[in-house]
Amino acid sequence: MAPGITTVLDVRTPAARRQLAKTTVDLFRNLLLLLFIVRYSRVALTYLYGYGPIASAKMGYAALRKSLYRIFLSLPGVRGKVQAEIKQTLEELEKKLVPSGPGITRYTALPASGWGPEQVRAELEKLHEMKHTRWEDGRVSGAVYHGGKELQDLQMEAFGRFGVANPIHPDVFPGVRKMEAEVVAMVLGMFNAPADAAGVSTSGGSESIIMAVLSAREKARIERRVTKPEIILPETAHTAFRKAAAYFKITVHYVPCPGPTYKASLSHVSRLINSNTILLVGSAPNFPHGIIDDIPGLSRLALRRNIPLHVDCCLGSFLVPFLERAGYDTEPFDFRVKGVTSISCDTHKYGFAPKGNSTLLYRSAALRKYQYFISPDWSGGVYASPGIAGSRPGALIAGCWASMMSVGEAGYITSCHQIVGAAKKMAEGLRSRDTLRNDLRILGKPLVSVVAFTSDTLDIYNIADAMSGKGWHLNALQSPAAIHVAVTLPIVPVVDELLNDLEACVEEEREKQRQAVVEGKPKAKKGDAAALYGVAGALPDKTIVEDLAAGFLDCLYKA
Ligand SMILES: Cc1ncc(COP(=O)(O)O)c(C=O)c1O
């Protein structure tokens, strides 16, 4: 070849064609490899930076342990044994939950001809009287947010008048539309919402949270073209956020809430924010420990990075907005904190509305619009609904409106005083009674209705089981192992009784432990909560717990 003359690959020859194909494949492969490296190093860097090298290494180790444990569980001999244990546990659970035996009739088909009203009434009475934990005597933590008999009667009247009502037809039920709008307006006012704020009502706290997450995801998708959404969630935030993330395929980054404050760690939140972050979350207060997160701190981060911030006030509901006027300490939590863009508040908790009521508030109507569903070209007609549900019970809206109008501001301040006062009495008892002070430790500084406590010396789940033996239903918590009491109006008059029984249970457990040591048996016999949470805490992979929980749900539908 003459010097200075460049060769041009002659693609007409087979060798050159092969060479060209090889080069193209190589190029393509290298490109894929590069994309792979860029993608995964970005994920790795997000984790390394967000969680720090030690926590990232721990997470890697936990994931490895989990995989190995899962393989171990699937080994033929092990799998059979585990399945047999799960089956046995579920059979025992079914015996407890599903009544059977003589005297129990199961109705699994329609009666051939309908019952008369007296027969229906008599059966309803029997169902109502089935043996249960006595919430009526204040034995149940949370769960029943009862506003008193008179209020309940009024709610029944509201149900009677609006039993067939459905807000999906505002022209047919204009009264329900008006009441729903007014419920939302009143709650917006309680949370110091700005003039442009807007809200919706929903069936409960979980739905409010799910819709808030959907709205944030849609906002990020439309305004910032985020296709791989992520939320940053304090570990103590309600699990409805995890549910929303599972439904909407959103990655969750968990933020620790370490003692002594048990508030979400702001430095972790800050490090985890990235271009895919669609929402920050804080609770006022959270379910496990009843702690109000540092909402102004979260707000500063949200404003700096221009990301929405949701405050979950589902539990705080009609207590937190009235703390100050009831004469108690409070912390900033509402729309007066500039970065707060949405708030969930359950009217069916301390608002004393009938179950099936909650509200979701947005700083602006534009944010609310992101949760709307509109189907303009459906053959059934143009369809538009604010949230997940289609038809909704107008009777519940009427019950909610009637409750709020009946209790009024002064009534809610009084109930806040009673409930939070009782929670403070409970906390004081834990701190001042010698038997309790020596073995139990309150988590953080609760300002509202929940008091959570753990033990550094005794098995707290055994104490929860012993309390169940005395007819109390307290909530068992995990990470850290603890129990909590969410004070409601029925609990207010029995706080001393609760503390006395707790003292007896702590003394009993201490004695059992002492006996076990004397007899050389390090572990005392475990009850239900101790067995479940003891096992759950020790397992690196939770599939067994998931199987048990799914079996529990199956049980709920056994007629
Ligand atoms: C802090 C908090 N958020 C959300 C929820 C969910 O509410 P619901 O059970 O009404 O769905 C709860 C329920 O206890 C809660 O405590």
UniProtKB/TrEMBL annotation:
EC assignment: the record states 4.1.2.27
* Membrane topology, from the record: Single-pass membrane protein
**InterPro entries assigned:** GrpII_AminoAcid_Decarb (IPR050477), PyrdxlP-dep_de-COase (IPR002129), PyrdxlP-dep_Trfase (IPR015424), PyrdxlP-dep_Trfase_major (IPR015421), PyrdxlP-dep_Trfase_small (IPR015422)
Task: Identify residues that carry N6-(pyridoxal phosphate)lysine.
Answer: K349
* Location(s) in or outside the cell: Endoplasmic reticulum membrane
GO MF entries: pyridoxal phosphate binding; sphinganine-1-phosphate aldolase activity
- Do you know which SUPFAM superfamilies this protein is assigned to? PLP-dependent transferases
Gene3D superfamilies attached to this UniProt entry: 6.10.140.2150, Aspartate Aminotransferase, domain 1 (3.90.1150.10), Type I PLP-dependent aspartate aminotransferase-like (Major domain) (3.40.640.10)
Q: Which GO terms describe its biological process?
A: carboxylic acid metabolic process; sphingolipid catabolic process
Does the keyword Lyase feature in the UniProt annotation? yes
Record pathway: Sphingolipid metabolism; Lipid metabolism; sphingolipid metabolism
* Main location, first listed in the record: endoplasmic reticulum
Q: Does the keyword Lipid metabolism apply?
A: yes
Write down what this protein is called: sphinganine-1-phosphate aldolase
Q: Which organism is it from?
A: Aureobasidium pullulans
The taxonomic lineage of its organism, from the top, reads:
Eukaryota, Fungi, Dikarya, Ascomycota, Pezizomycotina
